[in-house]
């Protein structure tokens, strides 16, 4: 039977076409985004793909294959191809067939199918990780192989459901304040409570490892603090940079009863371990030479941690996955605005940190007033005529650089700064020479990776106080910068087609504003260039969240 009023077309290759101008567009998009990934978003038809990982993340949240098929049927224009239904049943049915658990003799891998287990343990990637059989459906596993086995199994296409439990870790009292130091009451929002509780689980659905996905500005740090207060254990918090270390420290002192002496910093600037220790990814992955060992790896096992928090888990460096593979007996909480990783390590996040435990559409939080509403505008600019001709003769890499550093972008930004002279504006870009040129042109401060941390903190504080109203930021501004009054962002260049960077940059201006005004996110893009192709890919994740981009043209 055909339902012409419905907006979905499900194709036999497990892709979904979604009509944008259909009255049911929003409802259908919200129905499918929990188990499918947006791949393309042109004006009239969006394309989603159903992948094994998207289905396994849905299964980890308790969504069944029957519910997935039911949602597709509800919005499908045509009958769903039989092979798609079969693939959904097959892939989601794999989640839970293999279980890691403890019995009286230690860690075991259990399979509901004895024949399947018999063949799996012959796999060359598993043979050396598997111990003696316990019975027809169970084999012994050495605790140190727990993470490696999960990596091999997801590579084979059979994710293991890890229910082996965790070391409790050393106790330490951590209490959430009911009143902030400035006298205001502190109330954790309902979705933050639910996110932390979903992570920790319950007797029927044990938790303790997984990822919480929330928009920038929605209070992911609060989820971490609340989880810490529920566990009351020594905690290691891993963050992107020293600025993030200082922000986590401020939040801990502001919103918990921890004293300053209970919080340690482990970074390039300071190395102190306390009951709650905040360390940077950079220090953990530091080594003098590639052939040498990581000097600070011991921090993972130096203390009896009861919880490890991975902030901005989508940026987790590859070596930290190796460390994490050996830490599967510790509770692990990943915090991120998007599970997208441009390096293809999404499966490692799922396997070693844990599956998605909580997610909420950005637009839902916007409607509830927890994040600011935002308007996204792409301004397309021509290259100057002489540069346009030179562009055609350059190799691709140099074409990209020329397009990003288009000199005509300066005039566009000047006009935008004039328009938003009463606002708090962030200008964000990729290339240091470009940022320096803009800083000199507009006489505003610039923060890059080379800016000393003390100077960064000074400029951020001046921006928060309103003494500085415009900041130019390199990619250090993509994450872990708490600038609640920023309400305009102007993107002048970026990391190619990075979807997660686009989401992070919009997130810089999503803190709700007291006056309720709308935030504005501008992307200044060179027409007829590779940059425009990258821009279309960058926008995919935000389009999936319900944002649309206005297109404006700047004529010469």
- Domains, number: 4
> Helix proportion of residues, in percent?
25-40%
State the major sheet: 7 strands, parallel
Radius of gyration: 25 Å
**CATH fold-level assignment of the largest domain:** Rossmann fold
Strand order of the biggest β-sheet: 12-13-11-14-15-10-16
Query: Segments where pLDDT lies below 50 for 5+ residues?
Result: none
What is the mean pLDDT? 91
Find the count of extended strands (DSSP E, 2+ residues).
Answer: 23
- The CATH superfamily of the largest domain appears as P-loop containing nucleotide triphosphate hydrolases
Distance between the termini: 53 Å
Structural class: alpha/beta
CATH architecture of the largest domain: 3-Layer(aba) Sandwich
Percentage of residues in strands? 15-25%
Produce the secondary structure layout.
Elements: E1 8-10, E2 15-19, H1 25-32, E3 37-40, E4 45-49, H2 52-60, H3 65-75, H4 82-94, E5 98-103, E6 106-111, H5 114-120, E7 130-135, E8 138-141, H6 146-156, E9 160-162, H7 190-200, E10 209-213, H8 220-231, E11 235-239, H9 242-255, E12 263-266, E13 276-280, H10 281-284, H11 299-302, E14 307-310, H12 318-325, E15 331-336, H13 346-353, E16 356-359, H14 362-367, E17 374-381, H15 385-393, H16 396-404, H17 409-419, E18 425-428, H18 432-442, E19 446-447, H19 453-465, E20 470-473, E21 488-491, H20 499-507, E22 519-526, H21 530-538, H22 540-544, E23 549-554
Parallel strand pairs: 5-9, 10-15, 10-16, 11-13, 11-14, 12-13, 14-15, 17-22, 17-23, 18-20, 18-21, 19-20, 21-22
Antiparallel strand pairs: 1-2, 2-4, 3-4, 5-6, 6-8, 7-8
Helix pairs in contact: 3-4, 6-13, 7-8
